[in-house]
Amino acid sequence: MFLDPHLAALAAVDRRGSFEAAASLLGVTPSAISQRIRALEDRIGCLLIRRGPPAQATETGLRLIRHHDQVALLEQALAADMALPATGAATLRIAVNADSLATWVIPALAATPGLLFDLVIDDQDHSQDWLRRGDVAAAITGHPGPLQGCETIPLGRLRYRATASPGFLSRHFAEGVTAQALARAPSLNFSNKDRLQEVWAAQVTGQTPVLPAHRIGSTQGFVDAALAGLGWGMNPEPLVAGHLAAGRLVELVPDRPLDVPLCWQFSRLAAPAMTPLTRAIRTAAARHLLV
Description:
The structure is a single chain. This protein is of the alpha/beta class. Among the domains are: 87 residues, Arc Repressor Mutant, subunit A (Orthogonal Bundle), CATH 1.10.10; 103 residues, Periplasmic binding protein-like II (D-Maltodextrin-Binding Protein, domain 2), CATH 3.40.190. The protein contains twelve helices and eleven strands. The strands form three sheets. Strands 3, 4, 5, 6, 9, 10 and 11 form a seven-stranded mixed beta sheet that branches. The model has no long low-confidence stretch (mean pLDDT 93).
């Protein structure tokens, strides 16, 4: 409808990482992209793209991209309300933790046609930071808020089980799951931000053992590593329920889960346009998360 082609070029360069890729996305020449970016920088009076590789937006450039995304989302909603011809899908940037993405978020996205999703993967304890900075329009987060300019909807709790292979359990915890045993047995860690194993160990032992860990930045990799006897880790219950029932995995301590509350937070400005997605997120969460 009324989207600025200069801002569209800026967003495309930042997301695709080069002027050539942005040109291919928008169906124009790299020269046209360069001219649009240069004209926009002249108009704003500062650098908007760091010419990589990869090409990335500056802080001011990111602010303009956020504005572009919000306007695109609102215009798409307006076009639907007024039965106007579609002009292409708007891109919605969302921060989501990897375990939610692997267990219940994808069906919600699939149930919301007409949008392109740009997913930022981050720990649930840190995903709100993206929303606070304005780098995303919404986030699955472990923080209930309040967050200025945003709405918060509690979704439920994602349950984790401390799991390992039966052989791993017998090798490393023959005398029980103690702080001393946990300090020796290899654990699994997603990233520097992942504290689930530490939190569970502290709850079970009343101490804070230093856990030796394999770093595996993959939700499915966690499950595979546990099955292979590489280490123990906190796995989302929906992913390991079948393995536990079949005996391929066992809990380190029976019936000692760790529940992580999750919330859906989103920009109040974009809330009306995101109503279908918010509805789909709540429906999917109700099917997979605990109340």
